[in-house]
């Protein structure tokens, strides 16, 4: 079974593009491993970066979702690891990415003075994309 679940923060704002069959959103996700130090306080011991790609049923869905994912957005993603081969400077290389099947916006620990993390519109955007807003292909996951 090829399944991966990650919780982390985006490293930059997402990029959305139109494809032949709808749209796609790409972003990088930083996942930090935490442990307690000698004083008993939590600290990050290591951070791994994952390139993520999410396909949508419509280009509008990709645009809406892409606009909701800003630098530092806390997300939970579930998907599959995928590899692709490419050539650079005459050398064959392999790159890995996560093909996202499920995406959830998580509330940040750092809240602003209104008690929200400034991302209240993000879940609504994800829901609209998931329902295939304005698209006949409502059986698509995004």
Search tags:
single chain, 142 residues, mainly beta, OB fold (Dihydrolipoamide Acetyltransferase, E2P), 2 helices, 14% helix, globular, disordered C terminus
Oligomer: single chain
In CATH's first tier, which class applies?
Mainly Beta
Q: Which radius of gyration do the C-alpha atoms yield?
A: 17 Å
CATH architecture: Beta Barrel
State the helix count.
2
Secondary-structure element order, N to C: EEEEHEEH
The proportion of residues forming helix, as a percent range, comes to 10-25%
**Arithmetic mean pLDDT:** 82
Describe the protein in words.
- By secondary structure, the chain is mainly β.
- It has one domain: Nucleic acid-binding proteins (OB fold (Dihydrolipoamide Acetyltransferase, E2P)).
- It has helices spanning 59-68, 121-130; strands spanning 4-10, 15-19, 22-36, 42-56, 74-88, 91-105.
- Strand 5 and strand 6 form a beta hairpin.
- The radius of gyration is 17 Å and the shape is globular.
- The relative contact order is 0.22.
